[in-house]
Design goal:
With 385 residues, the protein is an alpha+beta fold. Helices cover 52% and strands 15% of the residues. The chain has helices spanning 8-26, 30-37, 42-50, 69-82, 84-103, 106-118, 233-269, 281-309, 315-340, 351-359, 368-384, and strands at 123-126, 142-146, 149-160, 167-174, 183-189, 195-198, 211-222, 226-228, 271-272, 275-276. The strands form 2 sheets. Strands 1, 2, 3, 4, 5, 6, 7 and 8 form an 8-stranded mixed β-sheet that branches. It has a two-stranded antiparallel sheet with strand order 9-10. The two termini are 22 Å apart.
Length: 385
């Protein structure tokens, strides 16, 4: 279980990240501006990159900080507090990098992760397809070997950073295979022949994060860029999700805290029946529930991250953290809109954006329903053993 105390170094990291997020996102209202325009947050990302607040778990061998998962979620929560759309764009690099870190492929890790360390570039994780989201075994993107190259054909969907990525991690199956078998993983550069992105998605929330299709049409990939061969790719995808789900819990913790803080300030100022609405018992109950949701989500997040740092990749810890915190974030942001009343339903205040942004937490990287399936299956396995 996570020890709920931070070191002096961790406190300094959090304070530094919190200060920067306030200066470059919240106070200039960049979060609101990018939500309206749908522009990609290049300038914000570059500032975060210059100050060492991205790519946090990259190994020292490629110039990374090699921070722990607990350190990572502490800093991530601060960026998520500022804007879930911006932070999802930031997290996209970590998601793409994690398969390389897990697979422990020295050549590919050095070649591609060092690019993200040395320049403010982007990468993307290509797993989901039009008919294969949470069900990775159903993917249909195929590959075959041809001389010294692999030829990939297929369509990936819901790809975060797909339009700006320098390279992708792509999961595809060997022609003639079905189910879990035959799934492999590749590092595919955006500049390779036959690779292109298409169809930028216009989303309800997290509009500062770009999502698109990535197409492979006889895409040519060097044999040396196979990250995980057949029989290993599916496991690599599952391990990646186990590693990334605490990050989603950190996102939920950040948006819950932001909604709570905005609601508390508003309740102290807004008056009805001659008194600030904070004096009304029902408002107090809603705010108290927000605090409970924040404490619980944050502890589940940190516990899952701590288990990962111990080498325990069991899906339960990460799935519990993601399922609870994502659902809690949706409730808290909805209640925030309710506390703001009619103003909360307008884009004059940030809470309507927080509610729209929070919904995606229940969907991407495995829906809340999928998390419950993961948890239940792990419970059965534990009982049988």
């Amino acid at each position: 279980m996570f020890e709920n105390s931070l070191t002096d170094e961790q406190k300094m990291m959090v304070d530094s990240a919190r200060k920067m997020v306030r200066e470059i996102i919240i106070e200039p209202r960049v979060d609101m501006a990018l939500d309206r325009s749908g522009e990609f947050p290049h300038a914000v990302y570059k500032t975060l990159w210059e100050n060492g607040l991205v790519n946090l778990e990259f190994p020292e061998s490629v110039g990374g900080a090699e921070l722990s998962c607990v350190d990572d979620v502490l800093i991530q929560e601060e960026i998520h507090y500022g804007c879930l759309g911006i932070s999802t764009s930031v997290m996209g690099n970590s998601l793409a990098a994690m398969p390389l870190i897990i697979a422990n492929h020295p050549e590919l890790t050095k070649k591609y992760l060092s690019r993200l360390v040395n320049d403010p570039l982007y990468a993307a994780y290509c797993c989901s397809e039009p008919d294969a989201g949470s069900d990775v075994a159903a993917l249909t993107t195929k590959y075959r070997k041809q001389g010294d190259k692999y030829i990939l054909n297929g369509q990936k969907r819901w790809i975060t950073n797909g339009d700006v990525a320098d390279w992708y991690v792509v999961f595809a199956r060997e022609e003639g295979t079905k189910g879990h078998q035959g799934v492999a993983a590749f590092v595919v550069e955006a500049a390779y022949p036959g690779v292109r992105w298409d169809s930028l998605v216009h989303k309800m929330g997290q509009r500062a994060s770009h999502t698109c299709d990535v197409l492979f049409e006889d895409a040519e990939v060097p044999v040396s860029n196979m990250l995980a061969g057949p029989e290993k790719g599916f496991v690599l995808a599952m391990r990646t999700f186990d590693r990334s789900r605490p990050w989603i819990a950190a996102a939920a913790s950040g948006v819950i805290r932001r909604a709570k803080d905005e609601s508390l300030r508003y309740a102290m100022e807004r008056k009805t029946f001659g008194v600030p609405i904070i004096q009304h018992q029902m408002i107090q109950h809603m705010l108290a529930d927000m605090q409970i949701a924040y404490e619980a989500s944050r502890l589940l997040c940190h516990n899952a991250a701590a288990e990962i740092d111990k080498g325990n990749f069991r899906g339960t810890h990460s799935a519990c953290a993601k399922a609870y915190s994502a659902d809690a974030a949706m409730k808290v942001t909805t209640d925030a809109v309710q506390i703001f009343g009619g103003y909360g339903y307008t884009n004059e205040f940030v809470v309507e954006k927080l509610m729209r942004d929070a919904k995606l937490l229940q969907i991407y990287e495995g829906t809340s329903q999928i998390q419950r399936m993961v948890i239940a299956r792990d419970m059965v396995r534990a009982l049988q053993h």
